[in-house]
Design brief:
The protein is α+β, with helices and mostly antiparallel strands. It contains 19 helices and 18 strands.
């Protein structure tokens, strides 16, 4: 969800049309640091040298780092926008250059931006991060490894202009880097220093803080992941490998606070449509598909991610078929099975785990973990409506389920908006929801979508009382004030949003219109 706009019209002649625009309700739209890293896992190598050396070669260990260490040169022209992009190294620094060749006037575009870090091991893809005045952004282009090509960032493949204000998402950092710091309160991509301390996923990310373990020469034990109760054991992987259709962080919690040994579902709930086909075609979220498989249903808690995947090492392409077949035969161990079950094709995944195109990442495939008698390579249908349920069968209260439906409403699902409104109104009546700015902010958005501006204003007021930095509440309350011809109040709110969070372009455009009207 995002800031409402005063108008969908362009800014050409904005001063002449400002007065007319201010009477409209608008339409909704959605929403120099050091790059040197120490090897945070090196301290483990003295005792676990073999594991350490194997792990260094994995995608997880190489999921992020300084841009110069993960340079993948680019030189491509994007047809829809006519922009020529390059990624290159110059004097030890990595740069993104962009130019719309031959363009004149307003269409002219030429410049470059220094890239500080990379995200993505390169096995699936890679992007780069840059910084402006403490705000961190993703590059507008991505490397897609499966097809060995550069293209625009997801959701911008057909963009006619360059998206150079893509905020770094804390969730991406959380799962691609270590030592991630909390963003400042005013914007999710605003940091007082570098957004993370260590490149890649370190040992501590899965095994916990090893300071005492190392200092005591191993006498103080680390948490035994295999001995944890299943939900805490599984949470170590699901912390990054579960997305669902919607993720709702529980009130008063933040996902960055999760530590190995915690129950992930104490921090957040993940929702999918009940009628969803396995993973829904999501490239990196397969737990919900695995839960539907006969393998998981019959094995129960014995089957987890590491039953089939070795987090400390990846099999080579030559070893892959034998490696995974052995994993299957751990359960399918009846006499003669291995010899009789398709001896002509030992690749179990080829028949039972289809690899259709992804629905959420361009140029990518899904390894479907809804392990079927016969998997297919056809794209899985994308479910966009229906009843939501929490992954794993966890009970969801009105607040969390309502926020999940609100996320679906933001994607255009009108029935979800109705469900969200009813649930969030019910949740609002609970005394402990008075300080829940997200609940009030999203309920205000839904009320505003329904044309109930006074109710929306009341909700936005409650949201701002709980969190003065809630840009959604402030930006959309400003639109309501402008509708009442309270232009000075509207300008003050939009100025607060845009000065703290310049990614909120809707607030910036509205501010331009109002300030122009005010002279």
């Amino acid at each position: 969800m995002g800031i409402f706009r005063l108008s969908s019209r362009g800014l050409a002649g904005v001063c002449m049309i400002a007065g007319a625009l201010l009477g409209q309700h608008g339409i909704p739209v959605h929403a120099a640091q050091s790059t040197a890293f120490n090897d945070a896992s090196a301290a483990c190598a003295s005792c676990h040298g073999a594991i350490y050396e194997r792990y260094l070669k994995t995608p997880m260990a190489n999921a992020s780092g300084p841009a110069a260490d993960g340079l993948t040169p680019a030189d491509f022209r994007h047809a829809a926008s006519g922009i020529h992009y390059k990624v290159f190294e110059q004097a030890g620094r990595v740069w993104l250059s962009y130019e719309r060749e031959g363009a004149q006037g307003a269409r002219e575009l030429k410049g470059r931006q220094e890239l500080k870090y990379f995200l993505g091991s390169g096995k699936r893809g890679r992007t780069y991060l840059f910084e402006q005045q403490g705000y961190w952004f993703e590059a507008p282009i991505n490397w897609y490894a499966k097809k060995q090509l550069w293209d625009m960032a997801p959701n911008y493949l057909s963009a006619g202009e360059m998206p150079l204000t893509l905020p770094v998402d804390p969730g991406c950092l959380h799962c691609h880097a270590s030592g991630v710091v909390l963003a400042l309160a005013d914007a999710r991509n605003h940091y007082s220093a570098a957004p993370f301390a260590d490149g890649g996923i370190t040992c501590a990310a899965c095994h916990g803080d090893g300071t005492a373990h190392i200092a005591s020469s191993g006498k103080v034990s680390l948490a035994n992941i295999d001995a944890m109760e299943p939900v805490r054991r599984d949470s170590v992987c699901l912390n990054c490998h579960l997305e669902g259709q919607a993720a709702v962080v529980r009130q008063g919690r933040q996902l960055v606070e999760f530590s190995p040994g915690d129950n992930l579902f104490d921090y957040a709930l993940f929702f999918v449509y009940q009628s969803e086909n396995g993973s829904g075609g999501r490239a990196t979220s397969q737990w919900e598909a695995l839960l539907k498989s006969e393998c998981k249903r019959k094995s129960g808690d014995r089957l987890t991610c590491t039953t089939c995947h070795d987090p400390h090492g990846s099999p080579s392409p030559q070893e892959r078929v034998v490696f995974y077949r052995r994993r299957c035969l751990q359960c399918h161990s009846q006499a003669g099975f291995a010899e009789k079950h398709h001896p002509e094709n030992p690749d179990c995944t080829e028949c039972h785990m289809g690899r259709p195109p992804s629905n959420d990442i361009a140029h990518e495939q899904v390894t479907d973990h809804w392990i079927k008698r016969r998997g297919t390579g056809e794209r899985l249908p994308l479910t966009t409506s229906g009843e939501l349920e929490a992954v794993g069968g966890f009970a969801a209260g009105d607040r969390d389920l309502g926020l999940a439906y609100a996320q679906m409403a933001a994607r255009g699902n009108q029935m979800a908006a109705v469900r969200a409104m009813g649930l969030l109104r019910g949740a609002e009546k609970q005394a402990d929801k008075e300080g829940d700015h997200e609940l009030h902010s999203q309920l205000g958005f839904l009320e505003q979508m329904a044309g109930k501006t006074q109710e929306a204003a009341d909700e936005y007021g409650l949201a701002l009382a709980a969190n003065a930095q809630d840009s959604l509440a402030a930006g959309n309350l400003a639109l309501i004030e402008a509708g009442k011809h309270h232009y000075a109040e509207a300008a003050q709110l939009w100025n607060s949003v845009f000065s703290h969070d310049p990614v909120q372009l809707g607030a910036g455009l509205n501010l331009a219109v109002v300030e122009c009207a005010l002279g």
